[in-house]
Amino acid sequence: MLIRVLIGIFICLETISGQYDYDEVLGKSILFYEAQRSGKLPSTNRIPWRGDSALEDQGQNGEDLTGGWYDSGDFLKLGFPMAYSTTTLAWGILEFRAAYEAAGQYEYALDSIRWPLDYFIKCHVSDYEFYYQIGYPDVDHSYWGRPEEMTMERWPSSFRQYSGGCDIIAETAAAFAAGYLVFRESDPSYAETLLGHARILYPFAYNQSCFQVSRDHVDEHYASSGSKDELAWGAAWLYRATSEQYYLDRALEFALPGDVAWAYEWDEKTVGYQLLLVTSAGQTAFLPPVESFLRDWLPGGTVQYTPLGLAWRVTYGPLRYAANAAFIALVAAKYDIMATEARDFARTQIHYILGDTGRSFVVGFGTNPPVQPHHSSSSCPDKPAECDWDEFSNPGPNYQTLNGALVGGPDQFDNYTDVRSDYIGNEVSCDYNAGFQGAVAGLAIL
Predict the structure, then answer these.
(1) Which one, of 418, 421, 373, lies nearest residue 398 by Cα?
(2) Do residues 382 and 399 make contact, with C-beta atoms less than 8 angstroms apart?
(3) DSSP assignment, residue 385?
(4) Dihedral of CA 140/146/147/152: which sign?
(5) Is 140 among the catalytic positions?
(6) Where residue 32 falls among pLDDT bands split at 50, 70, 90?
């Protein structure tokens, strides 16, 4: 009897402390990105409810713009968050490769980021033209159904020389440079192609007019708040890739050692380039703002905490911000920057997401995970059944499991309702998973 009691206590303590299968989480997060694929799917497609879609996506002169990821629960292809997600995923693969290998997910991870990189190659149609978006939000958001059955017009938008968009262009250069570093051993020829695009795109961005992304229909969703962070970020990645002084000089031209970032996300790369300059370029002047960023996110810092322990920054997608901060913390910890505090912080945030409060916020993982993510295609039943706004209003679970998707998350008091119509708390997005996936990989090996 005593032995049974002791075993029960041990199991209870183990559950409370949050023991999670990081390998499973990594694998399912990669599956989420596979579910977001646009274009002609490969024969190795592992998402049975997804098929070829948006095969008519093309540029204004008929250029092939198929491929890439759908941004979130809709079917827009948005270059800014897609490039940020690609860069961040590549960074995690570079820093925490051993975790992917131990989980048996390394090749899947490479395949995952190759998908958007191939798309960006298509989007870079000439030295001074880059397509940054397919589709208009208002038109796209009027449709609920399968991407394979879309009939709405999907307008392409591009930046040409002197037409703005240096932030998107520099972020894409960062994605190409980070991709080069990931692929240079396994596929040197492909890696050189990526680096070649990065080398062309960065001066395009540097010499471009730098009003923010506020053209046409982009501004209501992913309008950039500034461009200096992307220009420093892109150059810092190119310096890591090439060790060429030109890129370090450009990074230092735009980098701000006195700025402490409020977050790391698709629109805010300040702490990203600061940490990269410290760890890859020996620029120790940027160490204090990195440490200040971490202290802001630690308990007692400037970031608010919920009663159950989530570092809660903003209403829209708070889990994404906590996961991104955890990722930055773990990269810092790898390089012995506030290592103990950084690891402890990252663990508490990722474990909150995985289930320490009694529920998981990752679709298809753990205890009581979300079953109604705000995600159109996974809400659809198997064909040949129809799928439309009736599925949006369906009170039951999504018909398909969107494995690995991180939802937006709770309010500042840990309140969360798993309902499809809540695009603030239950939205999913490519940029939500990017830092989260890297943080899980970091926890697995640090």
Answers:
(1) 373
(2) yes
(3) S
(4) negative
(5) no
(6) very high
Phi, psi of 129 (to 5 degrees): -145, 130
Write down the mean pLDDT value for the chain.
93
Of the candidates 171, 268, 418, 431, the residue annotated as catalytic is 418
The catalytically annotated residue of 229, 230, 296, 427 is 427
Give the integer Cα–Cα distance in Å for 114 and 96. Answer: 18
Query: What are 69's strand-pairing partners?
Result: 37
Contact indicator for 307, 419 with CB cutoff of 8 Å: no
- Tell me the pTM: 0.94
Closest CA to 203 of 163, 173, 181, 223: 173
Short-list 209, 211, 292, 206, CA closest to 250? 206
Whole-number Å distance between alpha carbons of 288 and 310: 24
- For a pLDDT cut of 90, what percent of the chain falls above it? 89
Active site residue 221: no
Could you report the per-residue pLDDT of 369-389, keeping only the tens digit for each?
A: 999 999 999 999 999 999 999
204-251: pLDDT as tens digits: 999 986 655 544 445 455 667 778 999 999 999 999 999 999 999 999
Q: Which entry of 265, 374, 391, 431 is annotated as an active-site residue?
A: 374
Q: What pLDDT, in 10s, does the model give residues 66-88?
A: 999 999 999 999 999 999 999 99
Residue 321's nearest CA partner among 171, 436, 227 is 436
Q: Is 418 a catalytic residue?
A: yes
Would you state the torsion angle of the CA atoms of residues 19, 303, 324, 22, taken in this order, to the nearest 10 degrees? 0
Q: List Cβ neighbours of 310 (8 Å cut-off, separation of 6 or more).
A: 318, 319, 322, 349, 352, 409, 410, 414
Known catalytic residue: 217?
Answer: no
Going from the C-alpha of 302 to that of each of 261, 297, 305, 330, the distances in angstroms are: 12, 7, 9, 20
129-134 and 77-78: which strand pairing?
Answer: antiparallel
Give CA separation, 161 vs 127, 176, 434, in Å: 9, 20, 30
Alpha-carbon dihedral 422, 88, 123, 115, rounded to 10 degrees: -80
Q: Decide: 437 and 29 in contact? Cβ < 8 Å.
A: yes
Q: Which of 74, 229, 265, 291 is catalytic?
A: 74
Helix axes 318-334, 287-297, angle to 10 degrees: 130
Cβ neighbours for 355, distance < 8 A, ≥ 6 positions apart? 18, 20, 366, 367, 368
Strand partners, 158: 131
